[in-house]
Amino acid sequence: MPHLRLILSALLLAACSAPVSAPRMSQPAAPATATNTLPAEGFYVLPEIAGWNTAALEDYFAYVEAQNSTGIVIIDRERIIAERVWPAPVGDAMFALFVHGRAADGALVEDVASLQKSIIALLAGIAEDKGLLNADYPASHYLGAGWSKAAPEQEAAITVRHLMEMNSGLKEDLTSEAAPGEKFFYNTPAYAKLQSVLEAASGAPLAAITEAWLTRPLGLAETGWRPRPAAFGNVGNPMALVSTPRELSRFGQMVLDNGRAPDGTRVISAEALAALFAPTETNPAYGRLWWLNSGDWSLAAGGVRREGAFIPAAPADTITGLGFLGRQVFIVPSKGLVIVRTGASPPDTEFLQKSWELLAKAMPE
Questions:
Q1: Surface-to-core class of residue 309, CB atoms within 10 Å of its CB (0-12 exposed, 13-18 middle, 19+ buried)
Q2: Phi, psi angles (nearest 5°) of residue 260
Q3: pTM to 2 decimal places
Q4: Which DSSP symbol is given to 213?
Q5: Which end of the chain is least crowded, N or C, by CB within 10 Å?
Q6: Overall domain count for the chain
Q7: Which 8-state DSSP code applies to residue 180?
């Protein structure tokens, strides 16, 4: 969002003394073999065996590497057909602010930025399954009065669902500019109130419910909440969700598996998932904190309207989690696909479309 970009740009001066990374060098996936099993997440298989065009897939990798990517994972029907890890871009001080170490598999542990919104949506769905949350209740039911700067009667009309659908009617300073449910406005400070909603509804800290409801059932070791650098507090959301490409892919696989963990345990109901992925009236390309590709038009995070699908080159049923610096989790039920990209900001402003044009040439028919 523009507000976030302005603040983070101002942080560059403070980060310029960060160590410079080594030159980038591609690190391909581990040897592709059906016997190279990974706990709770399937196995590697050669992409050609899975029906992929390997030459076209290498074209895709060459492109995404040139777009400052640090990690890519592609899962095709529960099989890892490709995984690449690259070092951080040399001298990118802004990206350094988003790095929180390195995982055992060599991938960077990164603040996933606004992709955390999609994970919060999953937690909200689970809370509804447990009878702890009702998305149609006013946010004030959980937060008490005075959580915004809107007039009392305006605040009382804002539901949890409005916060999830980005149509609360609030501006970034949490004053009111429209009636709830009438206008799409991608509002991170308003979204961040959902973290407190979940804590109030569950009676437990956000980190605790994330571990109990998501990361532990999915077998995740690196994913969790951490405070951002102090200056990040100005963007309205001081908490970072950190993760790796492989661990993010497990969230996508859980969605593909209709809400079940790798061992078959129910994590979230099919009904709750369907509610998250239902297009909203104010933006058919947006559900509840997830981007959708089935609409006839879309409003991007910056408010620009475009006719046609959100990503024209992607399948119509693509479900997407997106974050600043080009963090991406793509879930394509019709293809059995999960694709994850992490890294620094892509220089190509049409990165979403171009990457899918290349993927379409590589994917099986």
A1: buried
A2: -110, 145
A3: 0.89
A4: I
A5: C
A6: 1
A7: T
